[in-house]
Design brief:
The complex is a heterodimer. By secondary structure, chain A is mainly α. Chain A has helices at 2-5, 9-37, 44-61, 66-89, 99-119, 144-166, 168-178, 180-185, 190-216, 224-238, 243-264, 269-283, 315-326, 334-359, 368-383, 388-411, 416-435, 437-440, 462-484, 487-497, 499-504, 509-535, 545-558, 563-579, 581-585, 587-601; strands at 135-137, 140-142, 453-454, 457-458. In chain A, strand 3 (453-454) and strand 4 (457-458) form a beta hairpin. In chain A, helix 3 (44-61) packs parallel to helix 5 (99-119), helix 6 crosses helix 7 and helix 16 crosses helix 17 (416-435). Chain A starts with a helix and ends in a 9-residue tail after the last helix. The model of chain A is unreliable at 292-303 (pLDDT under 50). By secondary structure, chain B is α/β, with parallel strands linked by helices. Chain B has 2 domains: 5-92 and 186-291, Rossmann fold (3-Layer(aba) Sandwich); 93-168, no CATH class. Helices cover 39% and strands 21% of the residues of chain B. Chain B contains 11 helices and 10 strands. In chain B, strands 6-7-8-3-9-10 form a 6-stranded mixed beta sheet, sandwiched between helices. Chain B has a 4-stranded antiparallel beta sheet with strand order 2-1-4-5, with helices on one face. In chain B, helix 8 crosses helix 11 (283-291). Classes of the chains: A mainly alpha, B alpha/beta.
Chain lengths: 610, 292
């Protein structure tokens, strides 16, 4: 107890507030956008990174003074934000509810890859001359950097307040956030409002990027995702569209992290944030500042997926496709067979995600976690001595059970909240794998996973492995298609279309979401397990956010809920960039652009959503 | 308590912030009775129905069905005990076919496809859906045949469109699908929330015919309706609400001549009116058509 009391709590509080004001800057932008556009901006983290690099260019490459750098970063961020709105969001005006969210994921990938291409993948220092004094208070101290960041945060909040409450455009923003249809009827230019909000939010996000760079004297092109998640946690704490709440949420999150690190160590840092997120979504989804029971929202109009009739491929064509696929190894190009095996593993995972995201309508951005669970389960069990064949099946069953249990907290969530919830669950799984060293070997990963050998038959050589995976894809595609034509298919789709109406007719939506996750978890776990045996080595990062986003791209490209579409799209998305090596280098850019174009021009996917 | 009452509600109250949307409402429906609730916009009719059917939670009050307490039961449980409702703005499953929409109404009656077993039910349900033993096949076929029968009561409105997604249907047809879905539940009590809202005259007349047939079958029906003409023709009893309170209750003739009801409608008619058909809200118009 004394040891805990003796910790430098004042310093932890200062660093918590400094961190918190940065999270608050991110969160305010996310909250503004959510309020006006009813959208969680997944590109917000990339804007943060862009801000950091504009800041580096101004402060280090051009040697400008700090105040000038901040102004230029704000302007640059605003320009990027306005562009995002005009290019990615505005054209999607009357599309399905989930379309703009997916578009922002695409934009995020594009921005991140652009930064990578210009500045390289390695972190670089961002030294800014600061006076050397420190103000000693009691046992702790405050330095000029702390004060600069805190003051910048306060000034930004004050400017924002002035804009929202003392300008005409600000009033239009507030009116649009309350009721965009009514605002439009009163002559508010919604497009201008949306653009202004994206510009302001992105300016704040970009400034946050610069400040973090100065604080740690380092900028890193790979931080987008983490910082965006922190912003999301902050707005969930504060209440999604609540701007002052977002500031409070940011500060609270900063303090929780700072104290948590003090007590448990830095490797658990993100675990706090995501656990707070999950608890908030479950216990107080309207934020801690919300009062009482909210009035039930009116049913949303329009359907979840784009209205379309899926294209039914004739049976002979499907049989022909399978035969042609089975003949691939005879082309005499082992490399192509290997690439196709990999693409078919994505197809297997894609089939499972299209059930969850397409048929049931739970847009999951954490699907890689299911693959990881299957991979680790099979790897650890077979290393412990279980035969590979049994290891695969047990791993799939474990994934079905554990995956469903983990996803359960997200079942209560709707629409965009599901995306945040699954993202957090996916990250928690990765962090548990990383920190549970005694079982998972932590960051070192698991070595020496036995090769694919099923009852003494070789499935690890290129050709048999390919046939095995092809066979599994065919079998699971058929099984899932059969489920979709049963009462389960219509029940799942009814839940997706209108959960309230489905419940009114006696459908237990949680139970049926659980069934879908169970079946999909089995399929995904199998895909992950086979991947593990093929690679013979896995670590916590083998199945990461990019895997999840890639799978989501596959599922959207194929048509949400469309089994054949998912397989076709997996071959296109995971196969093509490898075959054309030039594309492989710009893979993320390719995925981002593909996602963006797809949602804009063929939202129902190649074969139509079902 | 009225003897033989199927559904009884006592002192139902729901507050939104400072507003009491439903204020101590009592209501009871006998088996086979047709009770209509009328009242100007904002009187609290839909809120009352949402409370009775479990869509919303009441702050005070008690509801029983056949003597069993069903206060604030989840909508899913309500469906299981035979309470079926339609929604004011029509909530069909847009991307599902007409057939599948109505089949969802049969969900609570699936026996073979939905095993009731502890722990292993999920696995068994998936396996049965994959293997499809004869019992499951027979059940599904029977349900489909029944859905066709229900849809046939709407003439050739829905039958030719069996496999079309409901987003492609006209508004009136979507409302018909909703009623068919409610009937597929085999409801003990049918709650209809403005089934003719947004319909033109001929569609309204057709819907009125269908509801008259439902009444003739002896069904227990709770109806919210703006069109007094229809209410007066079909109801055994009418309840008028204003500002969350019951202001009049009795036979159609009694309620329609109640000065409080006339006042409530006239007082509101200048500000109400979200649809042209509400011209019939005027008591005079209602009286004329009802007697004509």
């Amino acid at each position: 107890m004394d040891a805990i009391l003796a910790l430098p709590w004042f310093d932890f509080t200062v660093s918590g507030l400094v961190l918190g004001s940065i999270y608050a800057l991110m969160a305010v932008g996310l909250a503004l956008i959510f309020g006006v556009a009813n959208l969680i901006n997944f590109a917000h983290g990339a804007v943060f990174t862009v801000g950091a690099y504009i800041g580096w260019t101004c402060a280090v490459a051009l040697g400008l003074p700090l105040w000038a750098s901040v102004v230029l970063v704000a302007l640059g961020g605003a320009a990027v934000g306005a562009l995002i709105e005009v290019i990615a969001i505005r054209p999607l005006n009357r599309q399905s509810r989930i379309a703009p969210l997916l578009a922002t994921i695409g934009v995020g990938l594009i921005l991140d890859q652009t930064v990578h291409m210009i500045f390289g993948a390695n972190p670089r220092p961002l030294p800014v001359a600061m006076p050397a004094w420190r103000l000693t208070i009691g046992s702790g101290s405050v330095g000029p950097i702390d004060i600069t960041i805190f003051v910048t945060g306060v000034i930004a909040a004050a400017v924002l307040y002035g804009f929202l409450f003392h300008t005409k455009l600000g009033m239009a923003v507030r009116a649009t956030a309350q009721d965009d249809d009514a605002a439009k009827q009163m002559g508010v230019n919604i497009h201008a409002v949306n653009m202004a909000v994206f510009a302001i939010a992105s300016a704040l996000g970009a400034i946050a990027g610069l400040l973090v760079g100065i604080y740690y004297n380092a900028i890193d092109p790979n931080t987008s995702f983490q910082i965006m998640l922190k912003g999301m946690v902050a707005i969930v704490i504060g209440g999604m569209a609540n701007v002052p709440g977002a500031i409070g949420g940011g500060l609270i999150l900063g303090l929780i992290e700072s104290y948590g690190i003090a007590l448990f160590g830095a490797s658990y840092r993100n675990l706090f944030a995501f656990s707070v997120l999950l608890v908030m979504l479950l216990v107080k989804p309207n934020g801690i500042f919300a009062r009482g029971r909210e009035r039930q929202a009116e049913p949303m109009t329009g359907t979840f997926v784009t209205q379309s009739k899926p294209i039914r491929l004739p049976a002979w064509l499907l049989v022909l496709a399978v035969i042609v696929a089975a003949l691939v190894p005879f082309a005499g190009k082992p490399y192509v067979t290997q690439v196709m095996t990999n693409a078919l593993l994505y197809a297997l995972a894609g089939i499972s995600l299209t059930l969850i995201a397409g048929t049931v309508g739970l847009i999951s951005i954490g699907h890689a976690a299911l693959l990881a669970i299957g991979a680790y389960a099979s790897a650890l069990l077979t290393i412990a001595g279980l035969p590979v064949a049994i290891g695969l099946v047990v791993a799939a069953a474990v994934t079905a059970l554990v995956g469903t249990a983990l996803a359960y907290p997200a079942f209560r969530l709707r629409g965009h909240y599901v995306a945040i919830g699954t993202l957090a669950i996916g990250e928690i799984v990765a962090l548990v794998i990383l920190n549970w060293t005694s079982v998972t070997n932590g960051s070192l990963g698991v070595y020496g996973i036995p090769p694919l050998e099923i009852f003494g038959i070789d499935f690890f050589s290129t050709t048999p492995a390919y046939w095995l995976v092809l066979g599994l894809v065919v079998v699971f595609a058929l099984l899932q298609t059969r489920l979709l034509s049963s009462h389960l298919g219509r029940t799942w789709r009814a839940i997706r279309e209108d959960t309230v109406a489905a419940e009114t007719y006696g459908v237990s939506s949680n139970y049926y979401k659980g069934l879908a996750f169970g079946f999909a978890g089995f399929t995904a776990g199998l895909a992950g397990a086979i991947t593990a045996h093929q690679f013979s080595y896995i670590n916590f990062d083998t199945f990461n956010l990019l895997t999840s986003v890639l799978l989501l791209t596959i599922v959207i490209l194929g048509g949400l809920g469309n089994v054949a579409g998912a397989i076709l799209a997996a071959i296109l998305v995971a196969g093509l960039p490898e075959v054309f090596r030039a594309l492989a280098e710009y893979r993320m850019l390719f995925y981002g652009v593909a996602l963006l174009l797809l949602i804009r021009f063929r939202p129902q996917g190649l074969l139509g959503s079902g | 308590m009225i003897s033989g009452a199927l559904l009884t509600a006592r002192g139902i109250t729901r507050r939104f912030g400072g507003i009491t949307a439903v204020d101590g409402v009592d209501l009871s429906v006998r088996e086979g009775e047709f009770l209509s609730v009328i009242g100007p916009n904002g009187a609290g009719k839909t809120t009352l129905f949402n409370l009775i059917s479990g869509q919303d939670r009441m702050d005070a009050g008690r509801v029983t069905l056949d003597g069993r307490d069903i206060t604030n039961l989840a909508p899913r449980r309500m469906a299981e005990i035979g309470v079926a409702r339609t929604f004011q703005h029509g909530r069909v499953f847009g991307n599902l076919s007409v057939m599948d929409n109505v089949l969802i109404g049969c969900h609570t009656r699936l026996k073979a496809a939905r095993p009731r077993m502890p722990v292993i039910a999920p696995v068994v349900e998936i396996l049965r859906a994959l293997i499809r033993p004869a019992s499951v096949k027979a059940e599904e076929a029977a349900m489909r045949a029944e859905v066709r029968e229900i849809l046939a009561t709407f003439g050739d409105r829905l039958t030719p469109r069996l496999d079309q997604p409901t987003y492609s249907l006209s508004y009136a047809n979507r409302r018909r699908v909703e009623i068919a879905r409610a009937l597929a539940l085999h409801p003990r009590i049918l709650i209809l929330d403005e089934p003719t809202a947004g319909m033109n005259e001929s569609e309204t007349a057709e819907m009125q015919g269908i509801i008259a047939d439902l009444k003739a079958e002896g069904r227990t029906i709770l109806l919210i309706e703006h069109k007094l003409d229809m209410v007066m023709r079909l109801s055994d009893r009418v309840m008028a609400m204003d500002n969350g309170k019951v202001i009049s209750e009795g036979t159609p003739a009694m309620v329609r001549n109640d000065p409080k009801v006339i006042e409530a409608y006239l007082g509101h008619s200048t500000i109400g009116g979200d649809e042209p058909a509400e011209a019939s809200l005027m008591p005079e118009a209602g009286l004329q058509t009802a007697e004509g």
